[in-house]
Amino acid sequence: MKKLLVIGASVLQLPAIKRAKEMGYYVGVIDFNPNAVGVSYADVFFNVSTIDIEGVTETAKQFQPDGIVTLATDMPMRAIASATKALGLPGISMETAIRATDKGEMIKAFAAHSVPSPWYFIVENEEKLASIQKKITYPCIMKPLDNSGSRGVMLIERAEKLAESFAYSVAQSRGAGVIVEEYMQGSEVSVEIMVIGGESHILTITDKLTTGAPHFVEMGHSQPSRFDEKTKEAICEVARGAVKAIGLENGPAHAEIMVTKEGPKMVEIGARMGGDCITTHLVPLSTGIDMIGATILLACGKVPDVAPKTAKGAAIRYFTTDSGVLESISGAEAAAAIPGVQEITFVKEPGEAVGDIGSSTDRVGFVIAQGETAEEAIGICEKAIDMVTITIK
To answer: For the segment 143-154, what is each residue's pLDDT rounded down to a tens digit?
Structure first.
């Protein structure tokens, strides 16, 4: 029996674990949390941190998988690069893993390959911040070099807020520091990509809805993009350039792009499938492409079929709430019965505190829907959300 090692066993990796089992793989999972939701779905569990490069590599040598994958999370990519190299398995290089997880190295690669991207300064400490503060133009964005999920992201509108924002962002860094960059205004999209033998296969473009300033947390996604064909081709060109800039030859990619008045510009790129149910749910619903299955096959040295099978609309929308303690949720069952609703999920339970949305972990839950068009899918999501009552005390 073929074996697959999944790095991570949280709810983010659960779809990959389930899909691998459906495909007939013997599945091992690695996670620091023995109570992670995906552990019970796997055949074997290894209690190792997903970012412990040496630990993951040694575990992979012990398990001897045919392929190694993760889903929707950046930091395990370095451990995967190390493990796949040690075992001679398909995977990304350590250089690519670093460019895909260190925002400083990433944006340097964009600049070196003439990929449209914002101006930037890399700031490791307060001394460096003081040395570049007169060069900064406002408004600007500050974010940790080595985190994700909108953690530590700040919009800075004037110089007086620079030090305060640095303290906030650097607290969310794992030690690398922060990046200060141009505040790009426009509409944000992501591009879902499978790279096979150095060729970028664009599966779809995803339109995004965020909270806006100051943290820009994503509150919704929809496919296909509603931009015109000329703009979509420009978006795809920038995404392909970003893939080449970081050196990705095989595997999934999730490119985030801002469509500005000057044209599309890169925000960042991950050498993995996108989170927020984009690649696990929306891509199959809108295109018919099994992106998880394709990623598993590619990780095991096989060439997957990534041709679209259908052309539908798909969307996800997140619930918004007041701050306080979650008391109760009602109406979800009726909302789930609306034609087109595919899933309603809550990640907070009664008794838990809920507050302002500063990162993706602060969201209460979501609705996923399919329609004939993106607009129809969004409308179904909104109808379902309106039927659900979330009581906060």
So the answer is: 998 877 678 889
